[in-house]
Amino acid sequence: MPNGPSLVNLAATAYRVPTMTALSRKHRIEQDPRWQAVLKRDASADASFVYAVRTTGVYCRPSSLSRLPKAENVEFFDSAEQAEAAGYRPSKRLASDQTQVAAHHATLVALACRQIEGAETPPSLSQLAQQAGMSSYHFHRVFKAATGLTPRAYANAQRSRKVRSHLERGQSVTEALYDAGFNSNSRFYEAADQLLGMTPSDYRAGGPNTDIRFALGQCSLGAILVAQSARGVCAILLGDEPGPLLEQLQDKFPRANLIGADRDFERLVAQVVGFIEAPAIGLDLPLDLQGTVFQERVWQALRSIPLGSTASYAEIAQRIGAPKSMRAVAQACAANSLAVAIPCHRVVRSDGSLSGYRWGVERKRQLLEREAACEASMPM
Which residue out of 60, 113, 234, 333 is catalytically annotated? Predict the structure, then answer.
């Protein structure tokens, strides 16, 4: 037989030698700053990315105490959602710790909200993401999941609140626009209709040139009033008698042109009444939300509660990134003037019992019972 290694030995040797692909992957991972965070088990990087292990099919946070994998077997993702979309599953340690992750995200979002609220001009997405230690893409998703608003929408709502507050205090339009962070008249007037639902001078004067259509009706819950501005439905009120509901609308828009007895608009009232009586039909209406930044965050979170489900005040506070603001959440629910469209009736106490409702606890009970029955009757 010829001298030298056999074919079997050559094959075994070749098998033991790492391929150039594996070597290059190992080098690339080791040069990635995220790998250093994994080696250090850096908890401050937990909100920035997760790493997945090809050989086990699981993903972990950088601070995970699991056995460190080989660099060539690692893959990085900006979020757990991306890792799961790629086919990885959370490690047992990570799966049992999702509550802590949610709390950490809530803290970061709350800090971002305070930064937006305190800034003269809205910070950019990249600035907010850098402060949170996340990529812009991941921060955008985390912020929207917590507040129901994108960072840009949150900043616009904050400026809307400032503009309304300054105009209601009697400031001139020019003073209001600069105090709210607008650098030029043109930019302010371009956004005025979206921010106020009317021109700034009309809003300051109580809406004298604003048309608001309304109609009164009856449903199984009593009297109902639906009103709509040019931007969308601005009021859905419930009560025992129609007179007080109309007075509430007049108080909200003291100098607006209130237009009733419009047959076309009465069809909208019928749509709202239909939803109250049969929630399964759904209710998709353009809304003219008019509240503070915090209130709009709460209202957006309420709209995410599915039909037939409820959430506690504490859960809503957690979702909007303000876990200690249960009382403020309750106040935002009480300030809601869009009954059923903003489903504040789906918010209950932590023990599941019913608490106050702007239009009466008994109406709240009836709405929840109908929605639960509707959900139970729907095919699986």
Answer: 60
Hey, what are 80's tokens? 């757990």
3-state class (DSSP) for residue 322: coil
Helix axes 263-277, 361-377, angle to 10 degrees: 70
Averaged pLDDT in 10-residue chunks for the chain of 380 residues: 46 45 82 92 84 92 87 91 87 63 78 84 89 88 77 78 61 53 51 52 56 89 90 90 91 81 78 86 82 83 90 89 81 91 92 88 93 70
Q: Is 116 exposed, middle or buried (0-12, 13-18, 19+ CB in 10 A)?
A: buried
- Please give the C-alpha separations between residue 297 and each of 144, 159, 278, 320, 369, in angstroms, as whole numbers: 10, 14, 27, 6, 26
What pLDDT does 69 receive? 92
Q: How many CA atoms lie within 13 A of 186 on its CB side?
A: 0
Give ∠ CA 245-249-252 in degrees, rounded to 5: 140
Residue entry with tokens 């339009």: 173
344 is catalytic: yes
* The CA-based dihedral angle spanning residues 58, 59, 63, 67, taken in that order and rounded to the nearest 10 degrees: 30
**What element of type H or E holds 336?**
none
* Number of CB atoms found within 10 A of residue 223's CB: 18
CB burial class (10 A; 0-12, 13-18, 19+) of residue 286? Answer: exposed
Report pLDDT for 174: 52
Find where tokens 């639906």 sit: 226
How do beta strands 89-90 and 58-60 pair?
parallel
Residue type, 294: F
The Cα 15–Cα 262 span in angstroms is 82
Residue with tokens 């009593």: 222
374 noted as active-site residue: no
Sheet holding 58-60, edge to edge: 74-77, 50-53, 58-60, 89-90
CB 174 within 8 A of CB 182: no
